[in-house]
Amino acid sequence: MRRGSGIAALLSLAALIAAGCGGGGSESGRATLNLWVFNEPSGSFTDAAKRCSAASGGRYKIVYNKLSNNADQQRQSLVRRLAAKDDSIDIMGMDVIWTAEFAEAKWIKAWPERFARQLRAGTLKGPLATATYQGRIYAAPANTNTQLLWYRKDLVKNPASTWDGLIAQASRLPKAGRIEIQGAQYEGVVVWFNSLVQSAGGTIVANNKVTPGPAWSKAAQVMHQLATSKAADPSLSVIKEDQARLAFEQGNAAFELNYPFIYPSAKEGNPKIFKEIGWKPYPGVEEGKPGKAPIGGINWGVGAYTKHPNEAFEAAACLRNEPNQREAAAAGGLPPTLAKIYDDPKFKKDYPFADLIRESVDKGAVRPPTPAYADVSLAIAKTVSPPSSIKVNGFVGDLSGKLNDALDSKGLI
Amino acid sequence: MSDVAVEAPARPRRKVLTGRAKAERKLGWTLCAPAAIVMLLVTAYPIAYAIYLSLLRADLRFPDDRTWVGLTNYITVLSSKLWWLDVGHTALITVVSVALELVLGMLLALVMHRAIFGRGLIRTSALIPYGIVTVVAAFAWRFAWSSAEGGFVPKLLGFDFDPTATTEGFWNYVVVILTEVWKTTPFMALLLLAGLTLVPEELHEAAKVDGASAWQRFWRITVPLMKPAILVALLFRTLDAFRIFDSVFIISNGNNPNVESVSVLGYNELLNRLNLGVGSAISVLIFLCVAFIAFLFVKGFGTSLSQQRGD
What we know:
The complex is a heterodimer. Helices cover 45% and strands 16% of the residues of chain A. Chain A has 18 helices and 14 strands. Chain A has helices spanning 2-21, 44-55, 71-83, 99-104, 113-120, 125-130, 163-172, 187-199, 214-227, 241-249, 262-269, 271-274, 309-319, 322-332, 345-350, 354-362, 373-384, 395-407; strands at residues 26-27, 30-38, 60-67, 91-95, 132-133, 136-137, 140-146, 148-152, 178-180, 205-206, 209-210, 253-258, 277-280, 295-302. In chain A, strands 1, 2, 3, 4, 7 and 14 form a six-stranded mixed beta sheet that branches. A four-stranded mixed beta sheet of chain A has the order 9-12-8-13. In chain A, strand 10 and strand 11 form a beta hairpin. In chain A, helix 2 (44-55) runs antiparallel to helix 14 (322-332). The longest helix of chain A has 20 residues, at 2-21. The longest helix of chain B is centred in the first third of the chain and has 35 residues, at 19-53. By secondary structure, chain B is mainly alpha-helical. Chain B has 13 helices and two strands; from the N terminus they run ααββααααααααααα. Chain B has helices at residues 2-15, 19-53, 72-78, 81-114, 119-131, 134-145, 152-156, 169-196, 201-209, 214-242, 246-251, 262-272, 276-310, and strands spanning 56-57, 67-68. The two termini of chain B are 24 Å apart. Classes of the chains: A alpha+beta, B mainly alpha. The interface between A and B is large, with 38 and 35 residues.
C-alpha cells in the first residue's frame, strides 16, 4: 500500500516535470512558435514578434527566447538542442555562416518554393547568397552587416584605399595613429583574413575543396605587417569588435575597421569624437582594386523538427518584412537586406552611410559555405592569431594542411 | 590471503541466517538500491557512453556517417602535436600552482592555527577567495590585468604591453597561475589546518625543552606528523588543477594557444566542432591521466600510512 502510493507520487511528479518541459504545443488551435535569437537590445525583435503574432489572425503566437550575444555560444545552445531533435525550435536567428552546416546536418528545413520566391524578390545579393546552400534557400535574410573603414577627420584628411597605404599613414601620425581591428583568436580574425584573401582575388574554400594560392600569402603578409608596425594596438591579439570600438571611442586610434554599431555608440559614448567620424569603403590589398568587405548579419531558419512548419515559414517571412527591418535598422542599427529600404530618404538621414553599406554588402566577401565551417574557422583563427606571430614563409602549406583536416573532420584543431 | 581466511568461516554462517536477519538484509539492499541506481545512472552510464563514443566516428553534423573506427580517435589525439602541447601547458600550470599553493597554504594554516586574537576573523577572511565563484574570480583577474579592457595592473607596473595578449606567453601563465593560487590557497590551507591540529602540543613542548629551534620543530615534528594531511591536500589539488578549465577559458577570453589546457581542447572538439568521437577520446584520456595521478599519490600515501603504523 505505502510503496504503491510512493510510486504514484513519483509518477505524478514525473508527469508534472514533463508537462513543464513541453513547450511548443498548441492551445485551442493557436500554434506557439518558439523564436530563438540573440538578445537584441533595442527591442526591435520583440516588437516584430508581437506585430507578426497579431497579424496572423490568431493562427500563431511567437515566443521570443533570448540567446547569448556571443555568436559561438548561440551556436552551441542551438546545436545541442537540434542534435537532440528538439521540436521546440521553430524559428532561429542563424549567423550567416551557419547555413551550410545546419543544412547539411538536416537541422533546418529548405524553404518551399512559394516562400522562397518571396524571399528572392528585392533582397540584396550578398545576404541572399549567405542563405543559399547547394542552390536551395535555407533561410530568410533578416538583416545584414558589413564593416567600413572609420577614421578621424581631425587627424586624417584623406585616408588611403589600400592596407599598405593605411599602415604607412597611421605609422606617420605622432600619437593615436593606431588601426583598430579584430585580432583575437575567434571568428572576428577569420572575417578579416577572409576579406583580405577575397580582396586579393582568392578564396579559402570553394565547392568543399581547399583553394590555396598567392592570395593567402598576401593576406598573411598584410596581417603580419600591420601587427608588427607602429599602427598596431599593443593588445591586438585580444581585440574583438567591442574592444576596438572602445579604443576608437576613447580617442586612442585614428582608424577602425568595424560594423556600423560603433556610430550610434560613439554618439552616446563620446560626442566630441562622434563629430569627427568619417567613413570610407573597406580597404583593398592592391592599388586600383577595391577591397571586399566582410558580410555578417543573421538569417531566420526554420527548425527541422518543428511541429508547425507552415506557420513557422510564414512567421519567419513576416519577421523580416519591410516595417520590421526598418525598425531593426532605425532602433538597433542592423542594416536591412531589402534593397528598397536603402532608397528611402528618411532611412538615409538616420544612416548617413547607407549607400556605402549597400554597395559593400552587394560586393562583399561571403565566408566559405561549408558544413565544416566551425572547424575551418577554428583552424584559420589558430593560424592567423596572434597576427604578429604569423609565419609568412610556409603559411600557405601550413594552413591548407589544417584546412584539409578540418574539412574531413579529422585531426585536432 | 587474508580475504580467503575471512571468507571461509563466513560461508557456513550464511546458511543459518534467521528469517529476521534475511529480512534485514533485504531491507538493507532495498534501501541502498535507489542510491546505487542513481550512482550508476549519473556516473557509470556517462563514462561507459563516453568510452563507446570514443571508438566511433561520431560527428553531430554528419549523423549518417556514424561508424565504428576502433582506436583511430585515440591515435589521432596521441599523434597530434597539439595534444602534447596542451598536456605540457596543463602540467606546467598544475605543478607551479600546486607548489605555490602548498607553501602559501602552509603559511596560512600556521597563521590560522597559531592566531590568538581574532581567530574567527582570520579564518573567515582567509576563506573568502574560496567562496567566490571561479568564473567571477577569473573575470576579476582578467579585468585587472587586461590593458585592452582597462585593467589597472599594467598601468601600475608601468607595462607598455598587454599581459593578457596572446603574444606574451610568459605573462599569460603569470595571470592564470596567480588566479589559481589566489582562488584555491584557502582550500589547501583548510586541509592543512586539519592536519596541524593533529600534531600534539606536548611533542613541541618536549622538543622546546630539548633546545630545538622553531625551524627544527617544524621540519622534524610538524611536517612528518602532518604527512598524510599534506598528501591528501596535494592529491585533491593536483587532480583539480589538472582538469583546469574555467579560469583558463575566461582569462584567455575563449581561446589562447599559449595556455590552452587539455580540458579546453576537449571542449573545443566537443562543443565547437561537435566531433563527439575525438572529443570523447580526449575526455577518456584526461580521465586516464587523472586516474594515473591519483594512483601515484595513493601509492605514496599508502606507504606513508604503513610507515606510521610501523612506529
